[in-house]
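Continuing from yesterday's entry. The apo prediction looked reasonable, so today I'm repeating it with zinc ion included to see how the binding region is handled. Same sequence as before; SMILES copied from the compound registry.
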Amino acid sequence: MSLLLRLGVVWFVIGMLPAMVVAAELPVVVGLKHLRNAEPREWNEFPEQAAGREWTAEFELSEKFRPQTLRVRHRDLKQLWRIRIDEHEIARLPRDENAMVTFWPLPTDKLAPGKHTLKISSTDKAADDIWIGDVTLDDRPQAEVLAEGKIDITVVDQAGQPIPARITIVDEHGSLMTTSAVSNDTLAVRPGVLYTATGRAPFGVPRGRYTIYAGRGFEYSLAQAQVQITAGDVKEVRLSLTREVDTAGWVACDTHVHTLTYSGHGDSTIQERMITLAGEGIELPIATDHNVQINHAPFAEQLGVRRFFTPVIGNEVTTKVGHFNVFPLTADMPVLDHRGTDWQQVGDALQAAGPERIVILNHARDLHSGFRPFGPTRHIAMAGEDREGWSLPANAMEVVNSGATQNDPWQLFNDWLGLLNRGLAITPIGSSDSHDVSKHFVGQGRTYIQVDDRDPSEIDVAAACRSLRAGRVMSGSGLICKATINGQAGPGDLAPKSDEYQIAVEACGPRWVPTPEVRLYVNGVAVTAKPQTTGSSALPRGVRWRGTWHLTGLKHDAHVVAVAVGAGVKGLYWPSAKPYQPTSPDASTHCVGCCGAIRIDGDGDGSYRSPNAYAAEMLSRIGNDETKLVTGLAKFDESVAVQIASLLRAQDAERYAALVKLAAGDVPPQIKRGVLDYHAAWRAGLPGNASQSSSLR
Ligand SMILES: [Zn+2]
Ligand SMILES: [Zn+2]
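Holo prediction written out below.
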C-alpha cells in the first residue's frame, strides 16, 4: 500500500459487488494550499504569506487509469476560482466561504495517458485568501462516487412528528460533504446541506465518517449523530428537535427574502426558497425580490409547505439612493417606482403602497450604486442627522442583515438609536437578505413580531404590520432580547412615570449560540451601572443571559433598548457570515439581538418626547442665551446636548460656534461629551476628512 501511495495511486476494493471491481484514486494535490489571487491579505486569520497566487500540479495518467471525477476541498472562496486540466476548464468552484468538498466530472475522452497539468486560479481583482487542496482523481463516474453508501434521515419534533428542517453533513476534516441528493419537490440541496420540506432526506455519500446535524433556526435545538459509512452501507438516522426559545405570541418574520428566479442572481430557485423557508421555521416571509412584486403563495401550495407560513408580497425597491423593503403589497397593483434620485422622490413613489405600508431602510452602511445611506459624508449617526437635509422615507431599518454583516456589530444599532434620538419612530429589523440556499441562508437574521402565532398559515398580516410599525419586535441573528419595564411595559409601550424603573432583560437563544454581552441603552447612551445578573447555571433553556437594571431619578422621557452581541456560530450547521464589505481584515463574526424600544414617560405628561423634541423646545424657549442653554441641558443626558448642537449648527453658525466654545470649558460632563462628540462627528464627515469606516461611538 505504501509503495502504491508513493507511486501516486491508491487501489482499493469495493466489496459486495458481483465481480471483483477495482476503483482507483490518484491524489494530485495532497493537503491544503493557501492561495491569494491579489494583495492585500483579505483576513488576518490567514498567514501573511500565501503559497502563491495560483497552484499548478503535474500528474501522470497510466494506460490503465481513466479518471472520471475530480474531488477537491476548499474554503473561504469569495471570488470565482477555476480548476483547469491542461486547457480544459473542469470546475468553477462555488463562491462560498464555508469549507466544503465538491466533485466535478472530467472530460475522459480528452485525458489521454501521459503527463497533464492541473491549475487552480482566479482572475478576479478583489483580494481573496483561500484554502484549497486534497485534489484527487477518481476513475468512477460522479454518481457512483457519491453513492458509495446511503443515509436515510428523518427529523422529528418533540411529539415525534416529522418536520421541515435543515440537515448538514460534515466530514471528519470539518468540511461540508457533497451528497448524491439533488433538489426536488421536497428537498433543496447544496454541498453538505439539505433542506427537507417533509422531515425526510435519503441520500448517498462517499465512504467516510460524518457528523450529521439537524436544525430549524435559532428557536430550536441542534440534533446530531455520528455516522461511519463504508461502501454498500445503508444507515437510517432519526434526529429529534426541541424548541428551546419560547416565542409564544411572536411570529418569526424574515423581511428580506430573494430568489434566483425573480432577482436573477444568487442560487435559490423559488421552489427551493419555499422549502428553505419551511426548513428554517420562518412563519411570515416577505417576498422582496428587486423591483418586482411576487406572490409566494401558489409556490408554497404546490410544494405542500403553505401550512408552515403565511406568505406576504413585498418589493425591495432598489434605487440609486438606497434599497427599501416595502410591504404588504398585492401582485396586481402597479410595481412601485424605483427611479427616484433623492429620498423625497423615493418617499413620494412609496406612497402608492398605501397608508399601512412598512418601509425598511436596508443595509444602511453598505455601498450600492456608489451610495452609502449612512456613510459619514452624508449622515451623522449619533444625531440621526442627514447632512443633506433629506428625510428618511422609512419607518424601520435593518439593524441586522445576516447576509451583509458588518465588522462592527454595534454600528447599525447605534445608527438606529441616533434616529430614535432624532425623534423618528423607526422599528429595528433583523433579516437575512438571502439570495441562496445555503451560502447565506434564509431566516438567519429575522424579526419576531408580536401577533397571534397560533396558526402560522393564517397570520393576520395587517395586525402584524401594525405591530411591527409600533416597534413590538425582537430582532436578531442567533439572539433576541426580551425586555420589560416594571414587569409591564414591553417593546412599543410607554411605561408610566415612576420613582424607580426596574428594567428586566433576557437575551434569548439556543444552547448552540455563544453567551453574549448585553448592553442597556437609555436615549442611546449605554448604561454604565452593572445589572443584577443570574448565574448561567440557573438560567432556563433558551435564555443565555438575564439581568435587571434599576433606574432612579429619571425626570424626563427616554427610550430604552437592550442589545446583545456575542461571538458568531462557527459550526457549519448555522455558520455566521464574515463581514460583507469589510472595513478591516478582522474576520470575526457575531450573533446579535435586540428588542424594539420601550419608552418611558419620565416627565409624567402622559406622552413621549424624544431628545430632539426636548432640544427644539429648549431652543425656542431660551432663545439667544447659551449660558441658559447649558443650565437647561444639565437636567438631561448627553442625547439632548447632541440634538441641541445638531439643531443649532443647522440654524445659526455663530451661536453654534459659541456653544462649542462653551462646551470646551467648565460644563457638566454629559454636555461636554454631547456637544464636543457631535462637533467631532460633524467635522469627520466633511469632504476630505471622511473615512467610510468611522464608527461614531
Ligand atoms: Zn439590497
Ligand atoms: Zn436584498
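Comparison notes:
- The chain is about 15% helix and 35% strand.
- The radius of gyration is 28 Å.
Will overlay with the apo model tomorrow.
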